[in-house]
Amino acid sequence: MFEKSLPIGSVVLLKGADKRLMITGYLKKLAGDDAKVYDYCGVPFPQGYVDAEAVAVFDHAQIEHIYALGFQNEIQFIFREKLEKLIAERG
């Protein structure tokens, strides 16, 4: 069901990592690198946003485990459809 995108607020663990991240955004680039667009950005869980240096960018394929799903409702489902179209377009 969640092969392409997870809702904001989802808590995940990346492969090879020991700290969990909470997803806070989608389709982000690193400053100064316009070539690569990452699927997600996230902040340490449970601390949340500490500063810009603590925000991680990562791709869906890097997720090893999903601990919690973020809030979902009709608005999020509509947004997810649009987001997944954008993801499909970028290959």
Quote the average pLDDT.
90
Low-confidence stretches: none
**Tell me about the biggest sheet?**
5 strands, antiparallel
Straight-line distance between termini: 19 Å
Layout of strands and helices, then pairs:
Elements: E1 11-14, E2 20-30, E3 33-44, E4 56-58, E5 63-68, H1 74-90
Please, could you describe this protein's structure?
- Strands 4-3-2-1-5 form a 5-stranded antiparallel beta sheet, with no helix packed on it.
- Strand 1 and strand 2 form a beta hairpin.
- By secondary structure, it is α+β, with helices and mostly antiparallel strands.
- The protein has one domain.
- It has 1 helix and 5 strands.
Summarize the structure.
With 91 residues, this protein is α+β, with helices and mostly antiparallel strands. The chain is 19% helix and 40% strand. It is globular and about 30 Å long.
Question: Which short descriptors sum up this protein?
Answer:
single chain, alpha+beta, 91 residues, 1 helix, five-stranded antiparallel beta sheet
